[in-house]
Amino acid sequence: MVKISVLLSFVFLIAFGFVVHGSSATKEVGVYEIKKGNFSVKFTNWGATIISVILPDKNGKLGDVVLGYDSVKDYMNDSTYFGAIVGRVANRIGGAQFTLNGTHYKLVANEGKNILHGGPRGFSDVIWKVKKYKNKGDAPKIVFAYHSFDGEEGFPGDLNVTVGYSLIGDKKLRVTMKAKALNKPTPVNLAQHTYWNLGGHNSGNILSEEIQIFGSHYTPVDSELIPTGKIESVKGTPYDFLEPHKVGSRISKLPSGYDINYVLDGAAGNKLRRAAIVHDNMSGRMMELLTDAPGMQFYTSNSLKNEKGKGGFVYQSHAALCLETQAFPDSVNHPNFPSTIVTAGKTYKHHMLFKFSTPAPYS
Ligand SMILES: *[C@@H]1O[C@H](CO)[C@@H](O)[C@H](O)[C@H]1NC(C)=O
Ligand SMILES: *[C@@H]1O[C@H](CO)[C@@H](O)[C@H](O)[C@H]1NC(C)=O
Ligand SMILES: *[C@@H]1O[C@H](CO)[C@@H](O)[C@H](O)[C@H]1NC(C)=O
Ligand SMILES: *[C@@H]1O[C@H](CO)[C@@H](O)[C@H](O)[C@H]1NC(C)=O
Ligand SMILES: *[C@@H]1O[C@H](CO)[C@@H](O)[C@H](O)[C@H]1NC(C)=O
Question: Which of 143, 150, 215, 291 is 20 to 30 Å apart from 278, CA to CA?
Fold first, then answer.
């Protein structure tokens, strides 16, 4: 595994790092690594995307625990959102429209009549600037920045967005998302769309991994995955992960797997609280996720099918799980959901903290 990952890094370095000619300026798409001990995370500024996370397992063997591609060109033409930052509004907005303060906004639909993850050219499909990059010291860090223009994919107002990733303490990854509305009120809902498989990106599926989700309620959806507006208890449903369960324990009760927003317990906004804990008994890897976001979309990569990924490995349905902390989907059309509107001059903030470990005894 060590040799493979070293070889892969080399392949990345030679395969990436080419130039894309943008409309206004020539911008470079590259690969960046931040590393602390043998914990390494690699990124591309295409979509402010995480392309690899290398971690030891219980025997100290290193492995890459996120799905992705060998070449950045594959990220430019994907429909999976592997590792990317999605926005301006993550998740779905029903009918690709909303009314804000008397003005009706029509967005660019990309999933039937609805809009998903900010539209056909959302934040996951643009070149971000590398604003800061420090791969040294106690807290190696990279910060990406993107200026979203007024009317982009139909959204109102200019928006300055930054996403920072840093490695802190012992195997902790902190994600800091900020977006300042410059001149008009706008909905903002950013999400980090990494596909995790703690057993290794090429280990098969996540059905035997155990997950605990700290959300006693969820937002039910219609047949197009648009929230009905109700908030229901997970009690007695396959969505109840208040106690740890294997991901696959009740998945067959759902049409194709999990793709649902949880209302996270505890107050959103001020401090980090636990969203989820995932444990893979085979590798011994554990991941704890904390956030200040109101909700979390739990997605078991239901639509992956014959997706050719890193090292030629072909990903199938349930090859990974996504823990996309965010506001509730379609909030702009549900006054009873926490508001996602950022008024002009104000800044949206969203934090995630991933803690990785290999706890010794686990039963
Ligand atoms: C990872 O780091 C630890 C602590 O520095 C070290 O003991 C271990 O040998 C390293 N593992 C690998 C595979 O490099
Ligand atoms: C982009 O993806 C589509 C299908 O999703 C495929 O038909 C097309 O060949 C791809 N283009 C490139 C340049 O890889
Ligand atoms: C709605 O419009 C009024 C009048 O233009 C303005 O004072 C108010 O701040 C606006 N509300 C938002 C959320 O921007
Ligand atoms: C917004 O971003 C642009 C481009 O990075 C920058 O020139 C401008 O100063 C920023 N504006 C504010 C108010 O931060
Ligand atoms: C994890 O594996 C150990 C043996 O390696 C076993 O004793 C334990 O029951 C397993 N736990 C779960 C939750 O599968």
Answer: 143
pLDDT tens-place string over residues 207-227: 999 999 999 999 999 999 999
Cα(281)–Cα(285) distance, integer angstroms: 7
Distance CA 358, CA 362 (A): 9
Q: Which long-range contacts (CB under 8 A, 24 or more apart) does 21-24 make?
A: 22/127
Q: Which amino acid is at 292?
A: D
List residues bridging with 179 in a β-sheet.
Answer: 161, 348
Return the residue matching tokens 């690709």: 96
Residue nearest to ligand 4 atom 14, measured at CA: 160
- β-strand partners of 263: 217, 295
Contacts of 361 (CB under 8 A, 6+ apart): none
H-helix or E-strand containing 41?
strand 39-44
305: pLDDT strictly greater than 50: yes
334 is catalytic: no
* Average pLDDT of the segment spanning 25-40: 88
| pLDDT-derived band at 317, boundaries 50, 70, 90 | very high
The H or E element spanning position 145 is strand 141-148
CA 9, CA 93: separation in Å to the nearest integer? 38
Q: For residues 21 and 40, give the distance between their C-alpha atoms in angstroms, rounded to a whole number.
A: 30
Residue 310's SS3 state is helix
For tokens 């999605």, the residue is 86
Token pair recorded at residue 338:
């926490």
Q: Give the count of beta carbons closer than 10 Å to the beta carbon of residue 66.
A: 23
d(C-alpha 181, C-alpha 184), whole Å: 6
CA distance 225 to 113: 12
**Does residue 193 carry a catalytic annotation?**
yes
Q: What tokens does 322 get?
A: 């996504």
Name the residue at shortest CA distance from atom 2 of ligand 3.
Answer: 101
Ligand nearest to the CA of 145: 4
Q: What share of the chain has pLDDT > 70, as a percent?
A: 92
